[in-house]
Design brief:
alpha+beta; 4 helices; 3 strands; globular
């Protein structure tokens, strides 16, 4: 597995979005233990910090749901890092443009 260099790059239609390693770790924790999220985790793990993570439309929609749930989480736990808020907004915009069902983000 690649050595962490401090970031994860995620490929989006507007270009790559960089997520810091601590934010990536927080996101990975939110993606754990749910089978439908396994391919997203696998993409992030395979990318490590040296390659760009590429997600299919369905994976992007699932990731947006995870981020939306996190944004609406009133548990007082760890707040969502800024770069993940940006990822949430960009994903919502991309999925709306593509007409993907369920692309109604809390940020929309």
């Amino acid at each position: 597995m690649p050595e962490p260099l401090g970031h994860l790059n995620i490929s989006l239609s507007r270009g790559d979005l960089t997520v810091t390693w601590p934010a990536r770790q927080q996101l990975m924790a939110r993606l754990m233990h749910v089978r439908t999220r396994a391919r997203i985790r696998d993409s992030f793990q395979a990318a490590g910090s040296t390659r760009v993570a590429e997600l299919k439309a369905g994976q992007r929609a699932t990731l947006l749901t995870v981020l939306d749930d996190w944004a609406l989480d009133g548990s007082g736990g760890e707040g969502m890092p800024r770069e993940l808020m940006l990822l949430q907004a960009v994903l919502a915009q991309e999925l709306r443009r593509a007409g993907t069902p369920g692309a109604t983000s809390a940020t929309a």
